Amino acid sequence: MNQLASPCHYRTQLIGFIHMRRTRVDKVNAELVTLTYGTLVAQLCQDYDSNYQDVNKQLDKMGYNIGMRLIEDFLAKSGVGRCANFRETADMIAKVGFKIFLNVTPTVTNWTSDNTQFSLIFEENPLADFVELPDDGRAQDELWFSNILCGVLRGSLEMVQMQIEAHFVSDVLRGDDTTEMRVSLVRYIEDEMPPEEE
Amino acid sequence: MAAPPRHATMLSISNGGTAQGTDRPQTQQAHQQVQTQSQSPGLRVPSNRKTIYDRHLNRSRNAELSRASFAFIFGEMVTYAQRRVTGIQDLEKRLNEQGYPLGLRLLDLLFYRSTSTSTSALTSSSSTSSSPPNRPLRIITLLHLIHGPLWRLLFGRAADALEHSVSPDTPNEYMITDNDPMVNTYISAPRDMSMLNCAAYVAGIIEGVCDGCGFETKVSAHNQPTDLWPSRTVFLVRFGSAVMEREKVLERAGVK
């Protein structure tokens, strides 16, 4: 049952990769993506009775599911190798990852001195194009419309041995001047051998 | 409403909400100035005015995104919908409902763009009316709009066929065929759900377009594979009886 909606069913995935490496990245009308994401968020708001905390959580969860699959797609399309450190990872996310999948390049900034936390500042955000949050006096304080992106980062980085935490700290949809996501490295996940193997 | 017909309005669950006075961004004056112009006085807007009212609607007209992004989002949408339903029909109904609001918005967008660029593809069978926005009055015009411009806007090409039911019992049924629906490219259904067609989402979009035009319709997506096109999908468009009656009147009156 789980395979039903999997956008990268294993077999098509493999075939797809070969195809993608040879040709350019397949494109689709950006408005279709924007509107599809919009209708998804609207549906969640409806299903969760405008409990925006729950909507945020659900979006994050969906993003996590996406991230776990997206990382393979990313590695195949970009052909990049392992990053030497977290700063390199951040650049890779912003300049390659977001470029491939959302055709934007957020700015990496506000590093902490120990190089474990940074911010992504989004000049453009295709997911939030044409969006206005509900004028119910709560959505602008509680809903992170693009929260799926946090989950995507969390899921995809986990697959390459990085446990991170990501959350939005500001969003133009809320009336802020910038859209900013804060990303923190929690730890590098050590390769763990299955216990039964010697 | 002057606002762009987007899911923004769809999200607006209640509009008479309490205006918030607290927690405003820095530049009060700019903020208030914008407020007077904006549709919803309760919403805060950024001081650099990056709101939907300030940005051109055609900005994203030719913008493209990775097809994978669409597939991922759509896939999550289907998975999510699947968890909350009991059967295939239920699931398709839900996908249909999610597509519907897109149709309403895309319709306005199509008309806006076809009039603002004058290279109107819609006017091929236009009425004698002189007003530029040529909303379809007849079924065939509407279906051509869906088959051509709508499909091109969404998928970058026209649909593959448009047919009318040959059965005398069902003159209200039309079929739009897509040999290889993009939305199904990355969806694989388990064997016990082989009837499922996630293009029900697109059926919802079509339904939204028709309803927005004043044609009450039910649209459903059906698998009709051929050897050459394994994921060929037929969208069955069934117009309501009121629409058919009006169609007869318009035909007698010679309206095209």
Automatic annotation (TrEMBL), chain A:
Transmembrane segments: none
GO biological processes: Golgi vesicle transport; macroautophagy
Localization, UniProt: Endoplasmic reticulum; Golgi apparatus, cis-Golgi network
GO cellular component, as recorded: endoplasmic reticulum; Golgi apparatus; TRAPP complex
InterPro entries, A to Z: Bet3, NO_sig/Golgi_transp_ligand-bd, TRAPP_component
Entry keyword Oxidoreductase: no
The keyword Endoplasmic reticulum belongs to this UniProt entry's keyword annotation: yes
Keyword list, A-Z: Endoplasmic reticulum, ER-Golgi transport, Golgi apparatus, Transport
SUPFAM superfamilies tied to this protein: Ligand-binding domain in the NO signalling and Golgi transport
CDD domains: TRAPPC3_bet3
Protein family per UniProt: Belongs to the TRAPP small subunits family. BET3 subfamily.
Protein name: Trafficking protein particle complex subunit BET3
Automatic annotation (TrEMBL), chain B:
Chain segments carrying region Disordered: 1-48
A single Gene Ontology CC term: TRAPPII protein complex
Intracellular or extracellular location(s): Endoplasmic reticulum; Golgi apparatus, cis-Golgi network
Keywords on record: Endoplasmic reticulum, ER-Golgi transport, Golgi apparatus, Transport
Low complexity bias: start-end ranges: 26-40
Organism superkingdom: Eukaryota
Keyword Ribonucleoprotein: no
GO biological process terms, semicolon-separated: endoplasmic reticulum to Golgi vesicle-mediated transport
InterPro entries membership: NO_sig/Golgi_transp_ligand-bd, TRAPP-I_su5, TRAPP_component
Pfam families for this protein: TRAPP
Bias-annotated ranges (Polar residues): 11-25
Entry similarity comment: Belongs to the TRAPP small subunits family. BET3 subfamily.
Function of the protein: Plays a key role in the late stages of endoplasmic reticulum to Golgi traffic.
Assembly information from the UniProt record: Part of the multisubunit TRAPP (transport protein particle) complex.
Protein name: Trafficking protein particle complex subunit
Species name: Penicillium bovifimosum
High-level lineage: Eukaryota, Fungi, Dikarya, Ascomycota, Pezizomycotina
